[in-house]
């Protein structure tokens, strides 16, 4: 194969990755924009309704980390050419995004990685317990952190990564 073909193929791959990241970020933006309204609704709800709101809060938190992990998976597949394997692949994927690889710089900072570990941990918990076991106070803390810090920080860092990607194909 010629170097020209490899460059075109790589360029196409990077453009696809950029589009994929932008689409997923847009979906996450929509999800995160609903958090304030959601928290207000829960705070005004009667106790019976809060049972259902806790399950919904768990679903929002689950979707949040799953969306971020989709972005990380695409980066792993398209740039690193592999994904971690084994029982701990989710945490290994997260850690790899905060570590420079052969064909890319870091995607997120160590600090953001530490914050995202909490959401990965919650997602694992959410998948393995009954919704009635969720505690609103803990859910509210996680939702508030997304709204006030984690989502904003993630967007800044992923947008910097995308900017670097764009420079390689322009």
List keywords for this structure.
170 residues, mainly alpha, 6 helices, elongated
Account of the 3D structure:
- The protein has 170 residues and is an all-alpha fold.
- Helix content is 81%, strand content 0%.
- It contains 6 helices and no strands.
- Helix 1 packs antiparallel against helix 6 (136-169) and helix 3 crosses helix 4 (89-97).
- The two termini are 23 Å apart.
- The model is unreliable at 1-6 (pLDDT under 50).
Task: Summarize the helices and strands and which ones pair or pack.
Blueprint: H1 3-33, H2 35-44, H3 47-80, H4 89-97, H5 110-128, H6 136-169
Helix pairs in contact: 1-3, 1-6, 3-4, 3-5, 3-6, 4-5, 5-6
Provide a compact summary of the structure.
This protein has 170 residues and is mainly alpha-helical. 81% of the residues lie in helices and 0% in strands. Residues 1-6 have low confidence and may be disordered.
User: Stretches where pLDDT falls below 50 for ≥5 residues?
Assistant: 1-6
Please trace the helix and strand order, writing H or E for each element. Answer: HHHHHH
Structure summary, number of beta strands: 0
Helix content: over 70%
| Architecture per CATH nomenclature, i.e. the level-2 architecture | Up-down Bundle
- The best one-word shape is elongated
Which assembly state applies to the chains in this document?
A: single chain
Give the structural class: mainly alpha
Rg over alpha carbons:
18 Å
Q: Mean pLDDT, rounded to whole units?
A: 92
CATH topology: Four Helix Bundle (Hemerythrin (Met), subunit A)
Distance between termini? Answer: 23 Å
Instruction: Tell me the number of helical segments per DSSP (H or I, 4 or more residues long).
Output: 6
- Strand proportion, as a percent range, falls in under 5%
Q: What is the CATH C-level name? A: Mainly Alpha
Number of domains: 1
Largest sheet: none
């Amino acid at each position: 194969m010629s170097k020209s073909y490899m460059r075109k193929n790589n360029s196409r791959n990077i453009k696809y990755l950029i589009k994929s990241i932008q689409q997923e970020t847009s979906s996450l933006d929509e999800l995160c924009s609903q958090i304030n309204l959601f928290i207000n609704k829960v705070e005004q709800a009667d106790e019976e309704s809060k049972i259902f709101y806790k399950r919904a809060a768990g679903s929002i938190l689950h979707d949040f980390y799953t969306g971020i992990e989709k972005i990380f998976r695409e980066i792993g597949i398209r740039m690193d050419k592999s994904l971690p394997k084994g029982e701990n692949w989710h945490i290994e994927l997260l850690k790899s995004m905060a570590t420079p690889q052969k064909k890319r710089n870091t995607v997120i900072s160590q600090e953001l990685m530490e914050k995202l570990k909490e959401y990965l941990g919650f997602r694992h918990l959410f998948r393995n317990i009954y919704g009635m076991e969720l505690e609103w106070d803990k859910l509210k803390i996680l939702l508030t952190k997304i709204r006030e810090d984690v989502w904003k920080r993630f967007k800044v860092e992923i947008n910097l990564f995308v900017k670097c990607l764009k420079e390689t194909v322009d």
